[in-house]
Amino acid sequence: MTSSSSSAAEKKIKLEIWKKVLIVLLVAFMIFVLIYLNNHESNQYILKTLELEGSVKDGNALFKTNCVGCHGITARGLVGPDLHSITQSFNDKEIIKQVTGGLTPPMPSFEIDPQNMANLLKYLHSLD
Ligand code: HEC
């Protein structure tokens, strides 16, 4: 009787431990999935853009039609800030997010395909 009740208690403890292990594993798995989804989703466009070789000339043309209104014809700043040496304070990913994200009004979000985004990046690098 005593031994059977103690083994029942042991079983209970083991069950509790297994429950905790399972919860920890579930939480770890969920964190993993969230991180994966987060990176996966935002990186597709960014990775594609970073793979491509940009053209300063095309990037400059794009800048002239889309950005000069706020950043000035020579990118020295107007409503928006001076973009010279911007690539020293922002990395490429951050610049892509800045241009496509619309996170800092009044600057709008731009729907821009990866090749044109790569051109724009190349142009911004040429302003260093
Ligand atoms: C309607 C005006 C406007 C247009 C158009 C615009 N921007 Fe901006 N941009 C801004 C403003 C204002 C900021 C500052 C936002 C802030 O930091 O709050 C900014 C910030 C930036 C920054 C970050 C610089 C920093 O120091 O914070 C980059 C890079 C940038 N713009 C690039 C571009 C590019 C490239 C284009 C064209 C595709 C563009 N912008 C078009 C207004 C504009």
Question: How would you explain this protein's 3D organization?
Answer:
- This protein has 128 residues and is an all-alpha fold.
- It has two domains: 1-51; 54-128, Orthogonal Bundle (Cytochrome Bc1 Complex, Chain D, domain 2), CATH 1.10.760.10.
- It contains six helices and no strands.
- It has helices at 2-51, 56-66, 68-71, 86-89, 92-101, 114-126.
- The chain is rod-shaped.
- The N and C termini lie far apart (83 Å).
- Residues 66-67, 69-71, 79-81, 83, 86, 90, 95, 98-99, 104, 106-108, 110, 120 line the site of heme C.
In brief, what are we looking at here?
The chain has 6 helices and no strands. With 128 residues, it is an all-alpha fold.
What tags apply to this protein structure?
Cytochrome Bc1 Complex, Chain D, domain 2, 128 residues, 6 helices, 2 domains, mainly alpha, binds heme C
